[in-house]
Amino acid sequence: MRLGEIKNIIETVLTEDNQIIIENESLFGDQAYLIKNFQEIVNAYDILNDQSWNDVDDNQLKSVVEKYRAVENPVQLDQPEFNILNAYISTLNQKIPYYYSTLESVVQEQDEKIINIKLSEKINSLTGLNELNKRLEKTLKLFNVDGEFEFKGFDKGSDWYVILAAGFYSYQFLVHGLDIAKKFYETREAYYKSKDAELNYKASLKKEEEFSRKELEEYTKRRLDLIIEEKVNEAIEKIQNTNGKTKEELQNQLVRGVKELVKELGEGTEFHLSLNPPEYITGSIGSLRIDYKKVRAIQEAEKKQIEEKNPKILTEPDETNENLEHKE
User: How many Cβ atoms are within 10 Å of 80's Cβ, its own excluded?
Assistant: First the structure.
């Protein structure tokens, strides 16, 4: 995880004095406590517990965290559970200010129109890196509506690219494009596995046409392409700025851009918003937290399915040719 992300997560539970605060309300005469920021504390705990400097004993706290990890705020703890949490936080607070001040000195504030790009683990050569750069340049050009995307260097504490959108609308369209690409994966998985896909395809056949598994796959791909086109049109209507282009021209450009993003996600590249994203983006499409583990799981399942349909045929080596080579 990037240092900036760690800082942002920890900040949600800190006071002005850089101390973790347990926002609580006493219940039943101190027999129980309502913890209003329990999930934020758990998120911070997950990070801080992995730090090498943190030697605070959390053996008792582990069971409390796991018991309520899936419960939404506020979380009600009984008195013994609250005492365990409070004791851990009180001890940890002796060290937190030093750690947080270090993060502050290292992490720089990011412009709200920054896009952080994590390079794929598949890249293991300069040739692969060069190919990625060419693909990213091509993809980002397709989202250039009112300003190009500028390379600003690397995020501190990581090997991620930092890209700045010079244009207000270019940035918005790229973020919407990423959201559409994310939803494409979620929709594709559900639609491929659904009975509706097969029924819809059968309903589209003429009486003289026969059912074909290959044609079903092509039909499904066309349906998903239409979903991309529809979502891109919705984004254009929402942003309402084509920068001199017709809606049809802009839609064709952005559809191509989204399809390139889908390919790039398939290559293992990750796109993350600025550490300080603008409110108008987070308010309109959510925080855009793409679950890349889910994306990779979908890709692996599809890859396995293809391999099962097309098994590799193993053949015995041609001994005749080998003997001829030895004789020569």
Answer: 9
- Confirm if 280 and 115 have CB atoms less than 8 A apart: no
- Looking up tokens 């991309």, which residue turns up? 228
Residue labelled with tokens 């855009």: 288
CA dist 75 and 86 (Å) reads 14
Q: How far is residue 254's CA from residue 251's CA, in Å, rounded to a whole number?
A: 5
- pLDDT tens figures, 216-238: 677 777 878 888 999 999 999 98
Structure tokens at 2: 């990037």
**pLDDT for res 2:** 76
Residue type, 212: S
Return d(Cα 273, Cα 93) in angstroms, integer: 30
At a CB cut-off of 8 Å and minimum separation 6, what does 279 contact? Answer: none
What does 67-90 look like in DSSP terms, one character per residue? HHTTSPSSEEEEHHHHHHHHHHHH
pLDDT tens, position by position, 236-257? 998 888 888 899 999 999 999 9
The pairing of strands 270-273 and 161-165 is unpaired
Coil, strand or helix at 245: coil
Give whole-number Cα distances, 294 to 161, 266, 271, 289, in Å: 22, 12, 15, 12
Collapsed DSSP state (helix, strand, coil) of residue 19 = coil
**Under 8 Å between Cβ of 121 and 268:** yes
Cβ neighbours, 10 Å, residue 283: 9
Number of C-beta neighbours around residue 35 at 10 A:
23
Q: What is the pLDDT of residue 109?
A: 81
Helix (H) or strand (E) run with residue 272 in it = strand 270-273
Q: How far is CA 88 from the centre of its chain?
A: 31
Sign of CA dihedral 155, 255, 176, 264: negative
Cβ atoms of 200 and 215 within 8 Å: the answer is no
